[in-house]
């Protein structure tokens, strides 16, 4: 067992010494430490603080910590400084899927095998939990994000790529949900291997990306949309310049320069306490078009940025990728129309349908469900791919891949752009 009160105290001491060194470096005109240099220096400070603690304990006639206890304390202090405190062991567990926190001592963990179990408290109090989230908000993403009574909602990307969403004051106790990024660098072969897509669907989607088709990935919350988007993005040649636009940085394509050396990652900026300085998703999509992109990737469409994005797709920026919440591949068109009605342009439904028909080539629907035939294992898989064929008062589409006997997508109808896909290596397997 680790003494969390000691971890909290030593974290403060190390943090103060680290801040003092930063001020000294600045006063002496020295360059700021890199992130890795700061972590290495912090490790030296942690060792120093723990050694001082051991001497103090001996001086008071008490038994100093054992080697194992010191190692646990050092790991806890480092996690509190640069990680997520007591949450770190959960984020280090490759089998953890999601973490839901309803107050500091009500922690529910979902695992890859479908189990959901209660976990130990992640903080001593709700105030300490809020303080942890505030620290993360200050150092994650491109800009500090407030989390307080005036700003009770927060979305951010954790250092390991997981997505955190937190609320306070609008709930009885602070609530946090963390969706793990278990597959950071993911390829189509990985998705075929874990059953998300069949080999035929994998070849089809790879060819669609190579042919610069505009793809919209749809599904429910936690269905695997972002993971599929990463897999598709990794089919894009490294010679292309990518611009990603997200509410909170999550895709992380810029973290793999060997795959994508030329990436600009945009993150929405929230207004400050005076309501100034906001930069919306729609503005960032517009800005991205002026940055010479080969492709624009919008992490998740949730509002009026949809109109700007669809316009971009119809103005020569082919090969765009995005995700959207929907209950079926067919429902995507109504969802987009609803978002378009909320936009400043107030596009009527007919105009929106025309815009969709000119912009989107394929809608890919991914779903999740417990497979009770396999012991209740949680399963994610692409069940439908719909091709957009045109507009006649409504969006015309055909389901070229439909759910098969096991739910996974199988060939269902001919593709109108088959010659184009075949030129990029696709060979139809089931028509």
TrEMBL record:
Pfam families: T2SSE (PF00437). SUPFAM superfamilies: P-loop containing nucleoside triphosphate hydrolases. Signal peptide: none annotated. Residues 89-362 form the Bacterial type II secretion system protein E domain. One of its GO terms (molecular function) is ATP hydrolysis activity. Gene3D superfamilies: 3.30.450.380, P-loop containing nucleotide triphosphate hydrolases. Belongs to the GSP E family. This is CpaF family protein. The lineage of its organism: Bacteria, Bacillati, Actinomycetota, Actinomycetes, Streptosporangiales.
């Amino acid at each position: 067992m680790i003494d969390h009160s000691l971890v909290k105290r030593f974290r403060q001491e190390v943090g103060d010494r680290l801040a003092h060194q930063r001020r000294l470096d600045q006063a002496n005109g020295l360059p700021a430490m890199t992130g890795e240099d700061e972590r290495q220096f912090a490790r030296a400070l942690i060792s120093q603080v723990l050694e001082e603690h051991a001497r103090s304990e001996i001086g008071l006639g008490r038994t100093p910590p054992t080697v194992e206890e010191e190692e646990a304390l050092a790991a806890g202090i480092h996690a509190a400084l640069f990680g997520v405190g007591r949450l770190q062991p959960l984020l280090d567990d490759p089998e953890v899927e999601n973490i839901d926190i309803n107050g500091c001592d009500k922690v529910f963990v979902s695992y890859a095998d479908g189990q959901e179990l209660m976990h130990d408290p992640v903080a001593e109090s709700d105030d300490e939990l809020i303080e942890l989230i505030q620290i993360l908000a200050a150092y994650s993403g491109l800009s500090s994000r407030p989390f307080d009574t005036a700003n009770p909602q927060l979305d951010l990307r954790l250092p390991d790529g997981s997505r955190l969403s937190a609320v306070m004051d609008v709930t009885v106790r602070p609530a946090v949900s963390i969706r793990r990024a278990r597959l950071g660098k993911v390829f189509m072969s990985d998705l075929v291997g874990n059953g998300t897509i069949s080999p035929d669907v994998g070849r089809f989607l790879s060819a669609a990306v190579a042919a610069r088709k505009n793809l919209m990935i749809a599904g429910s919350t936690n269905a695997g949309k972002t993971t599929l988007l990463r897999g598709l993005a990794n089919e894009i040649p490294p010679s292309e310049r990518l611009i990603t636009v997200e509410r909170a940085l999550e895709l992380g394509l810029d973290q793999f320069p060997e795959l994508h050396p030329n990436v600009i990652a945009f993150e929405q900026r929230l207004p400050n306490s005076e309501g100034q300085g906001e930069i919306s998703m729609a503005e960032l999509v517009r800005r991205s078009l002026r940055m010479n992109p080969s492709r624009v990737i919008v992490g998740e469409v949730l509002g009026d940025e949809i109109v700007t994005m669809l316009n971009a797709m119809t103005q020569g920026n082919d090969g765009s990728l995005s995700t959207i919440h929907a209950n079926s591949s067919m429902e995507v068109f109504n969802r987009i129309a609803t978002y378009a009605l909320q936009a400043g342009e107030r596009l009527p439904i007919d105009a929106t349908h025309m815009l969709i028909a000119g912009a989107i080539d394929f809608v890919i629907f991914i779903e999740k469900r417990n497979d009770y035939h396999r012991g209740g294992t949680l399963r994610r898989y692409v069940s439908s791919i719909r091709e957009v064929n045109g507009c006649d008062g409504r969006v015309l589409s055909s389901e070229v891949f439909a759910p098969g006997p096991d739910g996974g997508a199988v060939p269902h109808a001919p593709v109108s752009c088959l010659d184009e896909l075949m030129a990029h290596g696709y060979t139809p397997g089931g028509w």
